[in-house]
Amino acid sequence: MKKFVMLVLALVLCMNMVAFSAVAETAYNDLPFKTVDLEESDPDYYAQLLEAEIYNYKMVRNYPTLFEEEAWDLAQTSGNLLLTMDPANLTDEEKATIVAARDAVAALAKAQLKPFEGIDGEVLYIWGDDMPVTTENVEAGFTVASYDNADFRPFLVPYLVSDQSQAKGTLIVLSGGGNTTRSNPNEAYRVAPAFLDLGYNCFVLQRRVEPYNNEDIVMDLQRSVRYIKYHAPEWGIDLENTLLGATGFSGGAGNLCTLMEKFYGDITPDQFDTDYVCDEIDAVNSDLDIAIPIYSGRPLETDNPNIPHIFTAVGADDNIGGMNGYDQCIDMFLQMREIPNVNPELHIYAQNGHGFGAGNAGTSSMSWIPTADLYMQKVMGLAEVNYEGEIPAEYVLTQDILVDWFPTGETTVNVYTNADHSKVLYTFFGWGENIMVEGLLINDRVADVTYDSVGYFEADAPLMWELVDPNAWVPVA
Fold it and tell me: What's the CA gap between 274 and 75, in Å, rounded?
């Protein structure tokens, strides 16, 4: 079915070229722009120019990093005015608007930037010559009102940390817009630079949207995970010692939930599109370390054995379309709490409805990105949270041990003892708080727990002492 669809799409493109009988192509940053070769006096000129500039507008909005910001913004603003025009009944004012859009696109040639520095200047199309398609009659769904042109191919827009030795991790960013559009300006194009400033590589996914179905759309996300894992070594991205996550907003968060439900691990696209032939990228595992669904989420119905850590944030008054995002995010958080080795975190922001993106100015939602940064580094064991309480002066020796049996994952525990090794004190961060456990030592074992700040660690205290190396003590600084 998929090969047939791709053939039909090719025919659609050929027919479009017939419709553009007086239309040529030019290229800025290797992107194909439509231009009209007719004279302005030709009666068909403005109708064909309108069609060409709508095509250009839809294409340009997906490439925010290939051109200078001012020129890119102008091309977007000019092109946005074209979508409701009737090519058979254009007014003089509309013709002038179309010409302004044409000139704004032509100006992009002078506003080119080096594309995607650090990745050999490539546009990162995630599929090769083959692409899985399960949508029936997808070619019939493309109209002037469609978000994309019929020849759209999903790709990634990279934002890379200049020194990869300092990168904290890598995130895929999916904007919202349901499955009909990509609300990149308020979400992806604000969020990716914000995480980049905090030390994360970001890849904005320009995924397929309608007329493609949800299955095809989420396969783009699955492919992106694999694509980044496959190419990370050649890009100098260290995924062995840093994290790989994805953050999605609204509809993009829904896509992220579907990924965790049915497109995880070694599940490959040919299990959905039987005509698709897998390649070496599809052989890579598609699991994530971190999932960040923002103002959308739901309890998952899945057999996925490797659900990632979950961070979610939502406005307390989020009720878009009668769908209570607030309740959905809480339900997801409560479900995740019951899953071993998943450490969920939920933030609810007052007076923040749906769509706050990188944060609404003047509200507490401005803090969610820095908070997510702290969360990711902690749950992945990439950052320590130091005990902030006072260590009694009698404890003069210390060392660290690594405990691997806590349900929260591997935890660094700071161990202290006094000069005659008659007492032990443990401090560590877990379950959202700083924890202190103190005990008596007799014959080099914990004979009694005399203080437990949370009351859970009486049985753990002797086991933790067994991990102590008697030759590793150092003086308390």
Answer: 40
CA dihedral sign of residues 133, 136, 141, 147: negative
254-290 pLDDT per residue, tens: 999 999 999 999 999 999 999 999 999 999 999 999 9
In angstroms, the CA 225 to CA 330 distance is: 26
Cα–chain center distance at 322: 26
Q: Which of 419, 403, 410 is nearest to 457 (CA)?
A: 403
Instruction: Pick out the chain residues at pLDDT < 50.
Output: 1-21, 321-322
C-alpha–C-alpha distance, residues 53 and 42, integer Å: 17
* Cβ(331)–Cβ(257) below 8 Å: no
Q: What is the secondary structure of 263-326 as a DSSP string?
A: S-TT--GGGT-TT----TGGGS----SEEEEES---------S-PPEEEEEEETT--GGG--HH
| Residue 220 CB burial class (10 angstroms; 0-12, 13-18, ≥19) | buried
Match 């749906």 to its residue by tokens. 354
